[in-house]
Amino acid sequence: MPEAPRGQTPARSGEEDDEQRSLRGTGADRDASPDAGTAPPESAARSMTPPDRGAVTREGSAPRPSRWILAAIAVAAVAALVIALVVGRGGEDPPAGVDPGVEDPRIAINAGGEEVTAGDLSYGADAHAEGGRTSSATVSSDREDAEVFSDVRVGATGYSVPVPDGTYEVTFQTLENYWTEPGRRVFDVTLEGLEVLADFDPFLAAGGKDEPITRTLRTTVTDGSIDLEFDADQDQSIIAGLVVTPQDGGLARTAGTAWEQVFFDDFGSGLDDEHWWRYGGIATASGSPYSQEGVEVVDGNLVLTSRRGADGVWRGAGVGSRLNQTYGRWTVRARGERGHGITMVFLLWPTIGNWPPEIDFAEDNAEDRDMMSATVHFENGVKVHHEREIDSTQWHDYTVEWTPGETRFLIDGELWATVVDGRVPSEPMRLGLQSEAWLEGTDFFHPIDETTPAEVRVFIDSVTVETRAGS
Predict the structure, then answer these.
(1) Of 247, 268, 293, which residue is a domain's last?
(2) Pfam families, per this entry (predicted)?
């Protein structure tokens, strides 16, 4: 949730303007494997060896060959070498990043179709599907993967692909092959029991009918199969292809992304006013104002206290970071006291202050500290929301990894929710830490009631901010 009503920016202490530093992350390209050289065969090597000038025949010294004969021999030797190299390499370079001596480890499935080849990737015929029927789509023949998207499976409830246990990238390929407007086909995608695409509309995501679109997801397998499930909200699911690529490394950090720490605060020496500013003076969407008196550092912890004042007014507390950057990784170690109507919220808010977008990477429902949610807000009230059970009265590390087109949410280093969407913010954002007092409830938030203590505290042990290496 924002620290101010939608569309408003909370006032800073002194109303001063701050110089803000913006960092923009860029991904590092992977190095392609060099072509493997091929040694010439023994016969070709012999043909390039010059004749021994000291050799004789029984009749005496051999006549010295003319320069034209020597030239002909050299040309023949070069030709033999070229032929040997071409034959030895199969006539073409291996695809970038693929070891020419190792079988392609990727698994590719042409959903709804037969075996096809698209670029350097060979797709097997449709297999491992659960339910649905085959259909077709009209895709531009200029695409090298046109055959993949021309055949589709509609109405499948899922795929179960046998693989060794490990970490994988799963590329989901699809399109809208029938409807000519958004909202007519909407479904959810669950990967290994985790909802990774919510309210997915292929027409809306791709921008039209018969427009291919891909979404690459990451998961760790521990049961011997990649399980992909579809749950249709409108019409039926649709899938054109599936590519499974083994990954190195663990789940706790985005595959292929290296992080560099740019900021750390354990609040050991108090609140650094050069980095943090206190919320105050502006009522929030919860119906209560923020108080700067509710922010303090106690025993090395940043403490945000929501309390009922002597005047009977409930006031929340919060701080905002002055560090602005595009993309990165934020981790907050925190716990909260129980108290109906008092939230614990950690979020990314746009630097320019205009809402949306917003990324809430830890937000509870102000009830019993027994759940946590993550939400990405888009324009026109559209959002993608995830929830899970957790005891947030205990210490936990709450993390968001924000990269182009994707946000990944982790608790204690374990991935628990992912949002992959072209509308994921791409502008500079800053961190907000806040506790709100909700006087009236909503469909999600519980209100303050007679059981709520007069003071409810949120404790923050540390904050770590990272950016993508090389940015």
Answers:
(1) 247
(2) Glyco_hydro_16, Malectin
Length of the chain: 471
Please tell me the pTM assigned to this model: 0.52
Q: Which domain holds residue 81?
A: 30-53+63-94
Same domain flag for 120 and 234: yes
> Each residue of 78-119: pLDDT tens digit?
444 434 433 333 333 433 333 444 467 899 999 999 999 999
